[in-house]
């Protein structure tokens, strides 16, 4: 029998804090982007609409307020800082549901704009980071659609890279689903972009 939603949320928060403090290891993953991902940016996949906003594009006000409301009021300031570092923001929503507001996002950044990462990345590589889906919309394929769109937009010949905490089973599952493979475990980086 599943736990009531408020209790499940509290349990998740406790587990997150415990794991983040005492199980601080990352899984580093890689995906060969050429021919690996189906779909295209700014496309509808499985009912999920995904739009990519490049570093020079302003976010529409409704997208900004929707992301701030669901993922934290500091989202606009964080997004401006990330865009200044060359990040593209990928936003997923389901038209006709939740008022059409953003339900998930991920960021990608060119590899040469991610110095000091676990691996030396080149300009055609993409670092995937800061992936999140609103709790009420999990299990609907939002993160999968977002990642497929981001991978489809990556330059051919490069690779996509990601890392996530070893205990973050949902993130690991979606990364593996779109073609990422585990390479090794590592300690967290001091200036980790996510």
From TrEMBL:
Keywords annotated in UniProt: Transferase
SUPFAM superfamilies in alphabetical order: Acyl-CoA N-acyltransferases (Nat)
Domain N-acetyltransferase: 48-194
Domain of life from the UniProt record: Bacteria
Keyword check for Transferase: yes
One MF term in the entry's GO annotations: acyltransferase activity, transferring groups other than amino-acyl groups
Keyword flag Transferase: yes
Gene3D superfamilies: 3.40.630.30
Name recorded for this polypeptide: Acetyltransferase (GNAT) family protein
Organism: Alienimonas californiensis
């Amino acid at each position: 029998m599943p736990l009531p939603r408020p209790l499940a949320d509290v349990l998740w928060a406790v587990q997150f804090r415990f794991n983040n403090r005492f199980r601080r290891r990352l899984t580093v993953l890689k995906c060969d982007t050429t021919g690996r991902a189906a779909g295209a940016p700014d496309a509808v996949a499985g009912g999920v609409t995904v739009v990519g906003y490049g570093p020079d594009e302003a976010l529409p006000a409704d997208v900004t307020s929707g992301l701030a409301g669901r993922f934290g009021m500091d989202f606009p300031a964080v997004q401006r800082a990330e865009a200044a570092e060359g990040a593209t923001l990928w936003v997923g929503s389901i038209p006709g549901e939740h008022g059409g507001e953003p339900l998930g996002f991920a960021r990608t950044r060119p590899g040469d704009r991610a110095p000091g990462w676990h691996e030396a990345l080149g300009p055609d590589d993409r670092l995937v980071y800061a992936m999140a889906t609103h709790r009420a919309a999990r299990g609907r394929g939002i993160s999968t659609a977002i990642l497929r769109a981001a991978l489809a937009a990556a330059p051919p010949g490069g690779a996509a890279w990601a890392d996530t905490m070893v205990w973050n089973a949902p993130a690991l599952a979606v990364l593996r689903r779109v073609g990422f493979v585990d390479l090794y475990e590592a300690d967290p980086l001091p200036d980790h972009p996510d």
